[in-house]
């Protein structure tokens, strides 16, 4: 379980409050107007934003202040793929930043690449992949990292609608395999529906308590109606 216990996260002078919890394996889309604080929420959970007050816990343990020590994997729109490394190396980074992988770890990387449909492309560089394949490589890295919390910040907004749906399906599959909770920022209500879980709406300096997606869209807050038109 991920708990945001009375949290206020800071980014410069900006403040974002969140006071809720997500069960292990739960999936939550984060919607809200531009500049409302969606990325600040993820940064707070990941340890990159200031913790002004409150505590972030995973499975009852307060998370360490250093982001690298948090049980969190992140995926951004640019996928954080290193251009000079091969696909297999980019995925291997999720296991060991030194890339000195054991044979078993190399096998895990190969297995993850197979699971996301990239078998045979291990030796390519990211520039030699399509946008969708780059997304798959980034998802393979999430799979090998097997962290209990996955934070995604508009990860597939560069892809077309059909591919986006495929990628979301893959994320759901990968998260289920490692029993991870997923929090995903999106501007797209359809993506929130495709994630098929909960929705937190960020507005007025607060990330609302996640509500089931169907309830949320059945009674959307006025700010959401203003925002999606
Ligand atoms: N380093 C900073 N110093 C001061 N204010 C900042 C800083 N970084 C972000 N902000 C402000 O914090 C607020 C929240 O930013 P954040 O990026 O979390 O919003 P967002 O909802 O993710 O926006 P978008 O949808 O446009 O990506 C914004 O109003 C932004 O101007």
UniProtKB/TrEMBL annotation:
GO MF term set: ATP binding; ATP hydrolysis activity
Keyword field: ATP-binding, Cell inner membrane, Cell membrane, Membrane, Nucleotide-binding, Translocase, Transport
SMART domains: AAA
Boundaries of every ABC transporter domain copy: 2-229
Keyword DNA-binding among record annotations: no
Pfam families for the chain: ABC_tran
InterPro entries hit by this protein: AAA+_ATPase, ABC_SmlMolc_Importer, ABC_transporter-like_ATP-bd, ABC_transporter-like_CS, P-loop_NTPase
PANTHER family to which the protein is assigned, alphabetical: SPERMIDINE/PUTRESCINE IMPORT ATP-BINDING PROTEIN POTA, THIAMINE IMPORT ATP-BINDING PROTEIN THIQ
Protein name: ATP-binding cassette domain-containing protein
